[in-house]
Amino acid sequence: MITLVLETATYHGSTALLQDATPIGEKSVAMRGREHEALMAAVGDLLEDAGVKPPELGRIVCGAGPGSFTSLRIAAAIAKGLAVATGATLVPVSSLLLLAASREPVKTGRVLATLDAMRGEHYVQLFDVDAFGTPRELDAAARVASERLEEIARDHGAEVIGPQQSDKTLVVPHARGAARITKMIESTEPADLAAWEPGYGRLAEAQVKWEAEHGRPLMAQ
Fold it and tell me: Domains (ranges, CATH) in the chain?
């Protein structure tokens, strides 16, 4: 099966093609917002370079967050549009899981995967990584104060990894990481295309400001 993977939890977006569990191509792009959106073009170039026609896609994997609100929405829109157009199934995958699966070179042991949640907080999740680079979840994702990252990692005998870490532990979630978690992807139920949305982790800044100004939830009837 040919799988297209999209990951945009940070401002470094990526896309990859897998033939079963083998990567056959990848592209990376900067996520700069709607006016400079380059992810769809990267997907087109990736398919062309690999000689793959859209109808040949059997599955689309999309990083489901948490992460950048706008970037996640762009990837989700592309993933859902391609799934509708091609008939491919759509499988959402945690961006923290993709982060833990993206480390190069592979290093075994416990890691605390982290993504900046802004406002002095980080999204975190604890994983155990095996010799093949495949992460196993040890707990649920959470949002914690950034100052607690080292404390949490120390309590669990883990190493902090993520986009904001030092050169040694700087890891950005990348679409190619899906190759290391194909068994998990294969066992995951496809998303309902009409209802699925990424898990942003928190409300968008614009929504927070609107609700503070109006004194009520945005979706209130």
Answer: 2-94+174-214 (3.30.420.40), 97-161 (3.30.420.200)
